[in-house]
Amino acid sequence: MKQTPLHSIHTGLNAKMAEFAGYDMPIQYSEGVMAEHNWTRESCGLFDVSHMGQITLEGEGVAEFLEKLTPSKISALKDGVAKYTVLTNEDGGMVDDLIVTRLSKDKFFAVINAGCKDKDIEWIKNHLPENITFHSFEDRALIAIQGPKTEETIRSVLGFDLSEQGYMRYSEAESDYGLLFISRLGYTGEDGFEISVPNEKAADLWNAFSANDNVKPVGLAARDSLRLEMGYPLYGHDIDATTSPIEADIAWIMGKMTNTGFIGAERVINEAQNGASRKRVGVKITGRGVAREGAEICTPDGQKIGELTSGGFSPTLQGAIGQGYIETKFATEGKEIVVRVRGRDIEAVIASLPFVEAKTKKPIKKAA
Question: Are residues 293 and 225 in the same domain?
Fold first, then answer.
């Protein structure tokens, strides 16, 4: 298995390690998943996400090229602004979801999922015009620091005041740990940052954060429960190559739908105008039990109407939650359903997403 530059730190902390996307990754540390989850919601969690891909695309017309790969109006982004979007395939399904950040007129930075990294890079390169340069950072690690005390922790550890950096905004800073790419975003619903750091300085930066009393390391299991509470989709589970952005209920990535020339547009635009046959929804378990991916979603009288794609226990809500796809005509908040787990029907209801209110940084309002 591959290893991130922080691997020896995780094993030194006696983390429970397991394979994820070809990497040997920390699933949880000594205090356990519940404690890590709650610590992130209350203070400041530290995550190794160096297995994810970091790339740049540069050249004249690169924004228009990205508008071919994604259904988003990338050309409307201002410098230093990030956007969540997806790569679409010819059938209107998704190759992957990703965060794209405009660095300048003709240069973009993107972070892609670990499990799709090789596939994404091949997809992009297969469509790449000759005048656009592609670069993949193999020499940089990625550390996520998430939670309500993140801003004060960064101020204490790095000496940076990031209070003026808004949500989904990017900055760069020279530091004792080399040049840092700092993005105010994450996949937990908390205020936080993802910091790209040179490989040779990653352990030093991790240790500097870890020495702060606000900070504890968090593994991939709690990262998953945190994102599930937010109703964020996980590629390969809640979204995949067959799922359209409309079915996934993320049509907002398309804005006013002025980008109509992207790969797979015919299906996506048709569903946007006429509706899709199924829709991703939240599921809140009201009966006794926890339902996992693959469980059938049925009406109370036993008619199958869909399937759970993610499920688990919510430490914040102290109950079981999930998300999945159901026939659109049943996708009404509060509608009673049952989730079938090993032949047993568990009572549940359709719930709005997110399950937990996001606490991401509010936009900065500039004086007139």
Answer: no
C-alpha 362/C-alpha 23 separation (Å) is 34
CA 175 to CA 278: how far, in whole Å? 48
Is the distance from CB of 49 to CB of 195 less than 8 angstroms? no
> pLDDT digit string (tens) for 139-167?
999 999 999 999 999 999 999 999 999 99
Tokens of 41: 């919601």
Q: Which domain holds residue 303?
A: 277-368
Is 282 in the same domain as 365? yes
Is residue 257 one of the residues assigned to a domain? no
HEC states along 69-113?
HCCCCHHHCCCCEEEEEEEECCCCCEEEEEEEEEEECCEEEEEEC
Q: Are 281 and 366 members of one domain?
A: yes
> Which residue stretches of the chain have pLDDT < 70?
363-368
Phi, psi of 169 (to 5 degrees): -120, 155
The pLDDT of residue 364 is 58
The count of structural domains within the chain is 2
